[in-house]
Amino acid sequence: MRQVMIVDDERWIRRGLIQSIPWEELGLALAGEAEDGEDAYHMALLKKPDLLFLDMRMPGLDGKQLLALLGKELPELLTIVVSGYSDFEYTKEAIRHNAFEYMLKPIKKDELAAVLGKALEELDRRQISKARAREGSAKNWLEDVLFTGDGSESSALAGMSWKAGNSLLLVAQPDVYVERCELPLIMEQLRQKLQQERAFYFGGEWDVVMTAAQGSMCELVLCLHGKHLVRSELLRLLAMLQPLLKQLAGVSYSIAASEQAEQDSLLPQLYKKSKLSLNARKLGEAGWIGFAGETSVVAASAYPRELEQALLINLQHGNEEQAQQDFERFYAQISQPCMTVDDLLRGALMLVHSLEKQLQSIGANLEKATGHSLLAYTEMIRIRKDVTAVGAIFKNEILPGVIGSRSPAAGKQGEQIVREIQKLIEQHCDQPLSLHQIAESRFLNADYLSRLFKKTTGSNFVDYLTDARLAKAVELMRYPAYKNYEIAKRVGYEDYRYFSQIFKKKMGMTIGDYRSSLEPQTLN
């Protein structure tokens, strides 16, 4: 309750004021009364009242002098001057010393009620302003300590009512992506509700600071600080908080509660653990509540690479309808309800990187094809985290862009790549050629290039290379000047025995028998 002090040298005036004020109705309590300025000064320093009724004309230390002293010692004190004199000098002194109101004796009840109403409104306004300033300071601290590493414990605890105790974090994420979110309004309403409910949790001895998470439209981080943050009370708070967030934001939220920490310097680590536990939740679990550090680590699901390769091949050959179907199968695999948020993000990001590599192999990229870079899509996917929103990025932007970036002749681009590899083999079959190295040099996936090569030539890369080397060897065998081991080296085989085995297997006869059947040629 707010404390009121009454100072007047006439006892009957003090009694009249005390009897005229509806104390309980207004939430006021009498801190004390004094009949002279000196007693009033010492009492005010001791009691620190919120509101002071003061007579200006008193023996000894008068109202003017008392106002001057208290203005230095208690600058927040709200003073209502009461005087039986309408002398302008008293009014001027009251104004000069920042008195809130000036009333003339005898005081009428309706005038007293009006002045008290104004005074209480001003006290409420100041209290709200202080609370917001304190919360703003603490909020800035929480942002700094979580996201920039610049926060300090002293600045944090300055914003907390209960300096002794532990801290823990609540990280709340919407279960679906929200394009627009009135987060400041949501936070203000949430703050007011928590303030109203404060007495019903943790014995009332706790405080909360909240801030918006960086890089996320509607993610909230709440820092609880108190003496007794027991698990049972925390569960009750979460049960109240979750439906409240859904009501305010219009979407369901999943919430991860961190472990408790005695030192606020540990909060960044607790925040990371809470985020990891949220990403480990199943895609089919909306409105999930869990405790970081207690959530079991889920092994990453196998990436559907064969489905990815089928999609890439059909994109390469311009088979738009089939590519769309391939994507649907791929996406259904990584977005099953039993999959985790991590599974979804990992699968989507790997596919985006594969599409970027494929575009780079033909001199293009995602930015040219869609207007957004690989980095931009990585960030878009990271902040969405729900099946519908992530899928929409591919269906509405990435796939149409990749398909549309190809010219009418682009369906033959794959064949052109294979022709270039064939030419490379023809000219450099004596070199240790590797399909994996060729794929990397063209920013292509090796498995994809292998499938593409076989689809175009009807033969896999190794067999094609072997046939090319043996064809070259047969040409050289027509010249007796070349020794067999020299021919082996000229077509890429350092091990002659291995070369002779390959030759016999492919040609059906030994090197000697084959050379005996040839008509000798001479070198020019």
Principal-axes geometry comes out as rod-shaped
CATH superfamily of the largest domain: Reverse transcriptase/Diguanylate cyclase domain
CATH topological fold name of the largest domain: Alpha-Beta Plaits
Tell me the fraction of residues in β-strands, as a range.
5-15%
Strands side by side in the biggest sheet? 2-1-3-4-5
Q: Tell me the span between the first and last alpha carbons.
A: 115 Å
Secondary-structure class = alpha/beta
Walk me through what this model shows:
The chain is α/β, with parallel strands linked by helices. The protein folds into four domains: 2-107, Rossmann fold (3-Layer(aba) Sandwich), CATH 3.40.50; 145-291, 2-Layer Sandwich (Alpha-Beta Plaits), CATH 3.30.70.270; 305-412; 414-516, Homeodomain-like (Arc Repressor Mutant, subunit A), CATH 1.10.10. Helix content is 56%, strand content 11%. The strands form two sheets. A five-stranded parallel β-sheet has the order 2-1-3-4-5, with helices on both faces. β7 (206-212) and β8 (220-226) form a beta hairpin. Residues 151-159 have low confidence and may be disordered.
Features:
524 residues; alpha/beta; Rossmann fold; Alpha-Beta Plaits; 4 domains; five-stranded parallel sheet; five-stranded mixed sheet; 23 helices; 56% helix; 11% strand; rod-shaped
Topology:
Blueprint: E1 2-7, H1 11-20, H2 23-26, E2 28-34, H3 37-47, E3 51-55, H4 63-73, E4 78-83, H5 88-96, E5 101-104, H6 109-148, H7 153-157, E6 166-174, H8 183-196, E7 206-212, E8 220-226, H9 231-249, E9 253-257, H10 267-279, E10 289-291, H11 305-316, H12 320-334, H13 341-360, H14 366-370, H15 374-384, H16 387-404, H17 413-428, H18 435-441, H19 446-457, H20 461-477, H21 484-490, H22 496-507, H23 511-516
Parallel strand pairs: 1-2, 1-3, 3-4, 4-5, 9-10
Antiparallel strand pairs: 6-8, 6-9, 7-8
Helix pairs in contact: 3-4, 8-9, 11-12, 11-19, 13-15, 13-16, 18-19
